């Protein structure tokens, strides 16, 4: 319920979109999709799922609200919004850029280290369903919605490709740390990344 729903819109999305759309200014649309779409969904829905299955107390609206508002990435997003348009000293910018460049490799290595080549039989079905929902069903729904509303521009292309991305690494990490089928969660994320290189390319061919 957690890993199969949320998409890897930044760690994997940025390099893949940069490959698929090298001449397009896709970054503004990706940032909106990632920060105001995927991230908020993760902060609200992800927190709800984790709280629902791990909290020893009754899950209430107040509990979810407090957890969302005190969620570190959410606080960082709010803080970043206040810094829009602020120019930093070049040295600070270079340091932040250096840290940013390590994000994708570290995230992919972390997912790879947890990857297991062989899954128990009881994990095969939820594993298959999760990857089907994330890599096939989600982009199909995105394509249908764009067709219904007649959206045929860069924003819709980015949205469809993002919907086709692999499961979110952070969601897998949170699920594992919360004890929500850690082996299965890691497998869904790890194999999802590998398979998504093929499925996203096929989606790209389909819509472009």
TrEMBL record:
Its main location: membrane. Keywords: Cell membrane, Membrane, Transmembrane, Transmembrane helix, Transport. It is a multi-pass membrane protein. It holds the Pfam family Mem_trans. It is found in: Membrane. One of its GO terms (cellular component) is membrane. It comes from the Bacteria. InterPro entries: Mem_transp_PIN-like (IPR004776). GO terms for biological process: transmembrane transport. The chain crosses the membrane at residues 36-54, 66-86, 129-151, 163-181, 188-207. This is AEC family transporter.
């Amino acid at each position: 319920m957690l890993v199969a729903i949320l998409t890897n819109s930044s760690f994997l999305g940025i390099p893949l979109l940069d490959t698929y759309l090298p001449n397009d200014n896709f970054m503004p649309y990706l940032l909106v999709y990632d920060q105001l779409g995927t991230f908020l969904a993760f902060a609200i829905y992800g927190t709800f799922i984790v709280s629902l299955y791990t909290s020893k107390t009754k899950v209430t609206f107040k509990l979810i609200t407090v957890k969302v508002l005190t969620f570190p990435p959410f606080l960082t997003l709010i803080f970043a919004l206040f810094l829009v348009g602020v120019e930093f000293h070049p040295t600070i910018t270079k340091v932040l850029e250096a840290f940013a460049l390590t994000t994708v490799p570290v995230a992919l290595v972390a997912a790879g280290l947890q990857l297991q080549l062989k899954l128990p039989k009881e994990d095969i079905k939820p594993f298959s369903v999760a990857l089907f929902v994330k890599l096939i069903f989600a982009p199909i729904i995105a394509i249908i919605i764009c067709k219904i509303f007649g959206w045929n521009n860069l924003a819709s292309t980015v949205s469809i490709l993002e919907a086709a991305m692999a499961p979110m690494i952070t969601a897998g990490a949170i699920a594992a740390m919360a004890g929500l089928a850690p082996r299965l969660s890691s497998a869904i994320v790890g194999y999802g990344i590998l398979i998504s290189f093929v499925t996203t390319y096929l989606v790209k061919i389909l819509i472009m």
